[in-house]
Specification:
Layout (H helix, E strand, L loop, with lengths): L36 H16 L9
Length: about 60
């Protein structure tokens, strides 16, 4: 069994990568009625991947 990914609410360290990154993702938990354990794990992994592997350049920069 694999361990859960690190807390996705912690932004990357300053200067660790590009300045154009997603630093935090928050979901409205009140609008989600029910999730089983598999779906919850997939959600955690997807959020972790978005935060860890993202980089972008704004169109008007």
């Amino acid at each position: 069994m694999s361990s859960p990914p690190p807390d996705s609410s912690v932004p990357p360290a300053p200067g660790s990568s590009s300045a154009h990154r997603i630093a935090h993702i928050s979901l409205d938990e009140e609008t989600i009625l029910w999730r089983n354990a598999d779906v919850e794990q997939e959600r955690r992994v997807a959020i972790y991947d978005l935060i860890e592997e993202n980089t972008f350049k704004p169109l008007r920069s």
